[in-house]
Give the backbone structure.
Amino acid sequence: MVLINSETHQAMVTRQRIKTNAKRGGLLAGIGGLIVIGFPMLVSTGMNSPVGFQIKEGNVITSAWLDVPLPIYNAIYVWNIENPAEFRRGAKAKLREMGPYVYKQHRWKEVISWGRNQESVKFWALSSWEFNEERTVGTQKDKITMINLPVYAMAAVVRGLVEKLPLSFAIAPVAFGAVNVLFMTHGEGLLKEMTVADLVEGYPFRILDTIDVLTKPLTWFGIKLPDTGMPQNKFGLLHVKNFTKGGPYEVYTGQQGTKFLKFISYQDK
Ligand SMILES: *[C@@H]1O[C@H](CO)[C@@H](O)[C@H](O)[C@H]1NC(C)=O
């Protein structure tokens, strides 16, 4: 349904695979596999670095490392469901590819602290995205009919949690019943009509405003939903990462004979 990638070649390969899957009618079965988000690696894993490269306050490499000067373009392809009414009644989805909708990514870092003798540095990695009209085919106002991704995600999370419980066969109907009622009362269905801007920059997932109602019956069974990671209770492919801090990461600086950018820890692990 949706594909984000910064490398065109890789995007082509995956698009082909998605098209093949879609043609086989495996749309629902393959939901998990239909979303590919190809963010480039944020941390080097200690390749043989050029001698003398160091992360050190004030040098040129460090400025480029802190605020990545290369423009990175994320291309998003959307597969519009052309026959929503029939699809709801069980027919195969007719899909039309739209896009790419291109967003320019800006990446930067915020230093949290330096290790002893500046041998290491700990930092947050951040990204933001701006729509890029020139490289886009279509507009942000294009109307699309899509699988309602947060509903699927939530249903999948609840299913995963329920399956881990003892007596899950008895609990499942109750838990899924509660979730279904929630979706219905909030007018959330399997499909959703929206604009491309909604999909990428976020649309409100109102269930989260009343998440306590959902979690209450689930807590009776010891189910605790993980943090959804949806700022302002909005779901959007890039919205969820726009200006959010990733990490903390910790790497060696190359000072004191350490290896330049060699990975030490992620989220303090
Ligand atoms: C990210 O946030 C900026 C500033 O609020 C906004 O202009 C931009 O449209 C946002 N991008 C996305 C993809 O949500």
